[in-house]
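User: Sequence in, structure out. Go.
Assistant: Echoing your sequence, followed by the structure tokens.
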Amino acid sequence: MIKVKFKSNDFLKEMNSIVDYATGFLDGAKAGKTELLETVGLRTKEILEQFIDANARTNQAVLGHVYEWQQSGNASSRLFDIEYSVSGGGLTFKSTFRQSMSVKDGSVTPFYDKARIMEQGIPVRIKARRAQVLAFEDNGQEVFTKQPVEVMKPGGPEAQGGLERTVDSFFNSYWKQSFLRASGIADILRNPIQFKKNLPRAKAGGKTAGYDVGYRWIAAREAR
């Protein structure tokens, strides 16, 4: 007859430590979520702004309106801000517009709200204030008129919604396909290798050790 002595007390103690370690890991991961989202939000904001600049330099008809006159794609001449916020629901991005301070050739005052007006396609009514007539170019022809002029699509049809379409393109293609992969964040989230790598700490550290490992994993510190 074969007799096997099994130290159940030691086994249960080790199992409890591992369970505590796993519980701590999940708690730490939850706590580190905010830091991860802050990191992703800041980096995404920077890359998105650069993405818009690059597109504006090659397609002024679509994005020139969200920069000062003749400064399309120039970071220091942006008329938009990308803002992000972290909440319990995750990460949210939104754009806001700045007032234009530059003056277009042939004008004497800035078109203060031009970025918002052109992005939203808001019709504009122009009338002479100091002069007797309005003078402007239309399809290369110089036009003079005493009557107010209604511009139905200031900035042109391509400008309307141009920033929104560019931002959508960034998140629907580049962000998913390139940013998460290149940053290493996607791999970290898919493969919590730190849990297994630090498992020996469970015996001595229990829940405290698990919390530390989980926090560092989800906050992506190992990838920085």
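User: And one key feature?
Assistant: The first helix runs from residue 8 to 58.
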